[in-house]
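Sorry, any thoughts here?
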Amino acid sequence: MIKLPKLRTTFNKGVTLPSLLFIIFITLLSAIYPQLTENALNVIKGFIFVNLNWVYVWAVTIFVLFLVYLMFSKYGNIKLGKNDSKPEYSFFSWISMLFAAGMGIGLMYFSVAEPMQHYSNEIFSGSHYINRAKNAQLYTFFHWGIHAWAIYGIVGLSLSYFAYRYRLPLSLRSCFYPLLKNRINGKLGNAIDIFALCSTFFGITTTLGFGVVQINSGLQTLNIVSDNSFTNQILIVSILVTISIISAVAGVNKGVKLLSNINIISVIILLLFVLLLGPTVYLLGSFTEGIGNYINNFFNLTFSTHVYEEETLPWFYNWTILYWAWWISWSPYVGLFIAKISKGRTIREFISAVLILPTLFNFIWMSVFGNSAIWFDLHNAKGALSRLADNPDALMFRFLEYLPFPAIVSFLVIAIIIIFFVTSADSGIFVMNSIATKNAKISPKWQTVLWGCLLAVLSLFLLNAGGLKALQSMTLITALPFSVIIILFMISLTKALTIDRNYYDREFSVSTVSWSGEFWKERLKQIISFNDKNTVDDFIETKVKRAFIELQEEFNSNEIETKINEYSNPKRVEIEIHYDIVNNFIYGVENKSRSVSEYLINEDNLPDIDENKTFYPYAYFGDAREGYDVRLFTKNELISDVLKHYERFIEIITEQKNEMFISSNNNRKMK
C-alpha cells in the first residue's frame, strides 16, 4: 500500500469548519432556490431598512465623530506597535493598497452610474436640471466620503492597535480583549471570527460576481466577445482568479503591493485623460462648488432619516441605508487588510490618511466621471446616457464613446477593472486565510489556492443560477449585528487607550519624593508585598495615628485647636482643624482595596498572593482632591506630608481672591 504524506495545515478547525459549512449551505440555498431565497432575504432586509434604518444612521455618525475625536485627542500620538516601530511600507504604497482594497471595482462600476441614476431618478425629476446635477454630486459624495471610510477606519484601527500594541493575533476577536480578556480564545472568540470569515467571503463573492459581469460587458462593447454568456464568464473568472492566487501566494510585499501601485498610477492617468479632454472648466468649477455644498450640508445629510419626506423614503432605503449596510458588511475584510499594512503608523496618521485622502480622491474621481456624464448627457447625448442609468454594466463604456479614442480608453478601463478585481481577490484571499488560521505567520500555499478556487467556483455557481442578489441581501443583513459589534470595538478601544495613556503618563508615587535611600531595604520589601486588610488596619492604628497624635500635640502647643477623628468599616483616621469662616482642614488615611490582575497572581517571580484583592492606606483631603497611597511613608514622612498640605491650605485661604470659594457655608466633613 502507498502511504500518502500528511497534509500540513495551519487552519483553526474551530473557525474554518463551521465557516465552510455555513458558506456552502448559503451558496447552495441561493443557487438551488435563487428566487425563493432572494424573496425571503429581501423581506428581512426590507424590515431592517424600513424599521431599523436609524440604527445605521446613528452607528455611522458615531463612527465618524469617534474617529475625529481620536485624531485630535491626546491619544493621537500613540503608535500602532511599539513606541519605536517604523512603518513597513512607503506612504504611497500604503495609500495605494488601502485604496485598492477599500473601494476597488466599485469606483469603476458606480463612478458614472450613481451620479446618472440620482440625476435621472424620478424623485428629483421635478427639479431643474441644475439642482438635479447638484444633488447627484452631493449624494454621491455623501455615499463615498468620510462616512464610508469611518466604518473601515474603526475596524482597521481596532485591529491594528490590539495586534501591534497588545501583540494579539490579527483577528476580530482580539478587539474584545479589554472586555472579554482570555475568553477571546474560546468559543466566543471563534464565533466572532466565523462571522468575520463568512461576511468577508460573501462580500468578496458578490462584488467579484458583479465585476465579472462588467468586464464581460466591456469586452462585448469592444466586440472582443459576442455576448454575455456563462462560457465567457467562466473564462474571465478562471484567468483572473489564477492571477489573484499567484499574487496572494507571492504575499503582500510583492503581489498585492505591486498591483496596487500599478493600479493607482493607471487610475490617475485615466482620471487626467477625462479631466483634460472632457469639459475641463465645468469639471473644475463643479468640483469646487460640490465640496462647498458637501461641507454646508454635512450634518443635515449625516442625521437625515427622510422621515418628513415620505416620497423619498424608498430612495433613502435603496441608496443611503444600503450603502451603510454594504460598507459595514465589507468592513471585516477591508479592516483586516488595512490593519495588516498599517503597523508603525500613529493613530493620528492612520485616521488622517484613512479618512481624508481616499475621500478626497473619491470626490475628485466621482466629480470628473459623474459630472462629465451629466454634461455629455445634456449637451451631446441628448438624454441617451440618462436612459442607460439602469444598465450600469454598460454605462461606463457608453460614456467613453463621447471622449476621444474610445476604444483605447475602454481597453484601459477594462485593464483597471481587471487589476481592481485581482487586488480585491488576492487581498481577500489573504484576509480569509489569516482569519481561518488565527493569523498564522507562515501557511502552506495550498490553503491560499483553496480559498481562490472556492471563490471562483462559488461565484460562478451563483452567476449561473442567478443567486448573486440573494447572497448580496444576506451580506447586507449581516451588517446590522456587525454595526453593534463595531460599537463594542469602540468601547473596547477606548478602555485600552485609557490604560495605555495612563501607563506611559503615570508619574512616580508621591511617597517617593522625599526618599533619601536610607531605608531602601525596608521599602523594597514593602513594594513587592501585598497587604491584607488587617495589616493596613494595623498600619493606620499605629504609624498613622501616632503621627497624627504628635502633630496634634504640636498644633495645640501653638494654640491651634486640633482633633483626631476615628472611624471603622473601613478603618480610617483623620486630623481636622476647625475654622468658622473658611472650610476645615482635613487630612485622613483610609483602608482601601483594589483588584489584582490574574496574571500577577500567577506570576512566579513575585511573592505569593492568595486573593485577588490587596489593601492599602489611602490619603484623602477635606476638599475632595484626589488622594494617594501612603503605605511607603515613615512616621516622620507622614507628618511632613500633612504639614505640606497644611501649608498649601494656609497659602490659599490668605489670598483675598479665594474668599468666595473657601467660604465655610458648605464645610465638607467626612462621615
